[in-house]
Fold:
Amino acid sequence: QKEVEQNSGPLSVPEGAIASLNCTYSDRGSQSFFWYRQYSGKSPELIMFIYSNGDKEDGRFTAQLNKASQYVSLLIRDSQPSDSATYLCAVKKPGAGSYQLTFGKGTKLSVIP
Amino acid sequence: KAGVTQTPRYLIKTRGQQVTLSCSPISGHRSVSWYQQTPGQGLQFLFEYFSETQRNKGNFPGRFSGRQFSNSRSEMNVSTLELGDSALYLCASSSFIGVYGYTFGSGTRLTVV
Structure:
């Protein structure tokens, strides 16, 4: 079982719709979860982080965490063509002083005008 | 505030050569991590440094090494280059706490021919 799994996509949504991106992780002790956006040819850019079960909202983005089911998701409301990118889920390995992130392979999102 | 600076941006090397990549973290960030990104494997953790000490190392051969200087700048070295080392090498820095995620540099695109 891969440590962090994402559907590779591509996920296509029409402009204005809600895009839903999902991620599952295998290490039940994981505590910190991150979503990065990566445009083609660019480096990853942090969008959101979440530590507690439930939802966390920031503008058009909502991160959801369910530790019991070991999944984390990212919702993008009112999707725009500029949201077209690969979205990477990252999990911080448990352990004091360890800042290592394990990344999923990413989901490619395409927002159709 | 300057971001994470990686040099050089592009490199072309021949098999068997060695290469050194440089990373200057955001001012005040003491944690520096290195990742390798390839289309097939995604983002893979190489190593992490904090206060000149390597705290974690990923599953890469000993040809991959790194170090961190007292000003938090970091270098990674790859010796005896192989074709499979062609990748985007990303450096990320974080504050001491590290809980707010990492900021990535623009990366160094290494091509081994």
